[in-house]
Specification:
The structure is a single chain. This protein is mainly beta and 306 residues long. It has a domain of 178 residues. Helix content is 10%, strand content 39%. It is built from three helices and 18 strands. The strands form five sheets. It has a six-stranded mixed β-sheet. Strands 2, 3, 4, 6, 7 and 8 form a six-stranded antiparallel β-sheet that branches.
Length: 306
Amino acid sequence: MERFLSYGLLAALAGILLFSGCTQQGNNGYYQPPSGSPPSPGSQPGQVGTGQQTAQASPASGEGRAVITITDAAADMGSVSGINITVGSISVHSAQGGWATVSSTQKTYDLLQLRASGAQSLLADANLSPGTYDQIRLEISNVAVTDSNGTHNAKLPSGDLTIKGGFSVAANSTTSLNLDFAADRSLHLTGNGRYILAPVVRLQEKDSADVDASNEADVKVRGGRLETDIEVGMNENGAVGEGIVIRPDANLTIGDDGKIRAMMPDGGKGPGKGNGYGDGGGSARPYNESINIGDDAAARLRIGIQ
């Protein structure tokens, strides 16, 4: 009887060893599914269980990563409670390769919500060839302003916001570009109550940054070297550059031809390098002073692959 029990115990032990061999773990100590099995949700780079894109994987060998974000640093906007801008595409330019599209996904951003949260929202996240890039272009298709009287479409001097500001991309490294819109200095009101958005933006570039874009609504940027820090603006003709703005005391009108015209109270041109019209009479009333926008707002614009 004892002999039969011994044989039974040996058979059971052999079965246990055989079963454990069939479910053997990999060398790293974690279970590895058989070859050909589909990966579990969230196991692939750039994906989570919800199917939404997370932070992009590290750049491929020989490429660099560029992350562009958007923020808003406006002060109190008075009766204006929302400024929604719709960005259709984002491109960067280099002398060697010309224009390259880094995002063609249409997205809408509420500048005042960004100001309230203090977050940097993702515009684009892309791998680029190493080198120096000299321009960034945003195609803005629509601007909607919400105030106490409802929601209104704002007039853009130009739907192309092209910023001439150099930044570099290094192989196997991440460059952070932040576009910080100063909404309170960008938004203007005509004499008959129509809104005009002429963007004033600050571009900051950080090289060798640590960027976590897993949450597109709140991109985290740590470290890095600040290499570029410039502010540009747009005038009523759509020209963009450093020192170009629409003066806050300009008398703005939108003609039947859709063109924006700005006349200064003193009849001259302000510091906007070509913005403003007038005959020198100095009698024009600065109608757009009626919009309640803080004069001491910080002027910052960030481009966000961040």
